[in-house]
Each structure stands twice: as structure tokens, then as C-alpha cells.
Amino acid sequence: MTYPCPLCGQKEVVAYWQSEPRRYFQCAFCQLVFSDPEKHLSAAEEKSVYDLHKNSVGDPNYRKFLSRLFLPMKDRLVIGAKGLDFGCGPGPALASMFDEAGFPTSLYDVFYYDEKSTLQLNYDFITATEVVEHLVHPGEVIRNLWAMLVPGGQLGIMTKLVIDKESFQRWHYKNDPTHICFFSRYSFEWLANELDANLHFFGADVIIMEKK
């Protein structure tokens, strides 16, 4: 059995890789790779994994990791720009970094900061670091985030990218049971075309899309 692509919804999906207990599929249109929906964790199981993370607001190593997105995003903003850190986790260090730099940033996380009122506002920028690989419906979520951006707004994403099938089979990133969607550069190029966005890649895992 195969499943429609969770990014673009197309049904032309092929088997990509199998590693017990999960199978992985790839969409022929947007090239998203995704795991077998029947093997997804429950919400409680998923949160139990996140609760093991020890990322804190003041951790200098965590801040250095987040700076891969923070620095190129900051350079694209004017002081006072308002943002949303979507999927901020229990230790919202990135939001603190933006706050400290003069960019007030709201928080949202379905497990830790489930304040849905923050999803009813408009923003100059939105960040999602190590988030999209966890999403059951990434196409729907990203489009909703896009709709919250003002013209000229920036959507910054950090996620590891699929390179090819040979690399995928050795890739530790796929082994995390909470990681269920894997984007390639082409997936983001397809998405940017759909959203009519200006697309920029920074390093190996940072993507910024600008709303025209």
C-alpha cells in the first residue's frame, strides 16, 4: 500500500527504502521522502522523545547551532520586525536570540507552548528549526505559516536534506522515530514555485523563503 504525498498531495508515490520497522516512500512530483504513516508514533510517544531533549535557552552550544539560521535571517530583517518561533520546543533559545537582537518573537509549540492565539496574527518573519521533518501534514502547515507572513516576510527553516538513496540508507537522521518527512533541495524548489517565493539556501540545512 502507498499513500498520497503529505507535501503536495499527489498519488504518484514509489517505494524508496525499507529499514525495519519503517518503510519510506518518495513523491514523483515534489520528491519528498516520507515514512510509513502506519508507523507514526502517538502524540504521547512523540512528546516522550522530546522530553528527553536538554536544550536550554542559555546553552552556548545550542545557540551556536541555532545561529546557522539566526544569522542569515537577522541580516534580512529591520530592527523591530516581529516574528514567530514555530515549534520552539521547551527551551525557546532561538526566540530569545531574536528578542535580544531587537526582534520581538512569539512562541508556538503544540506540546509546550500551545497558544493558538499566536497563530491568528501576522508576522514579519517565522522560524521553524528542526520542525518540518516531524510534521504529519507539512504542506498544510507550511501554507498556513506562509499565510501569516506579511508581504516581504521571511520563512526560515532548518532541516537536514535528502541527497540520494545511497546516502539515505546510511543516514542517521532517518532513524529518529519522530522524523517522518525528509525534504530535498528540489522539494523546497518545488514548494517555492508553488508559493511564488524567493528561495535562498544557506549551508547544508538552512532554507529561507521570502514572500514577494
From TrEMBL:
<dbReference type="InterPro" id="IPR029063">
    <property type="entry name" value="SAM-dependent_MTases_sf"/>
</dbReference>
<keyword id="KW-0808">Transferase</keyword>
<dbReference type="GO" id="GO:0008168">
    <property type="term" value="F:methyltransferase activity"/>
</dbReference>
<dbReference type="Pfam" id="PF13489">
    <property type="entry name" value="Methyltransf_23"/>
</dbReference>
<dbReference type="GO" id="GO:0032259">
    <property type="term" value="P:methylation"/>
</dbReference>
<protein>
    <submittedName>
        <fullName>2-polyprenyl-3-methyl-5-hydroxy-6-metoxy-1, 4-benzoquinol methylase</fullName>
    </submittedName>
</protein>
<keyword id="KW-0489">Methyltransferase</keyword>
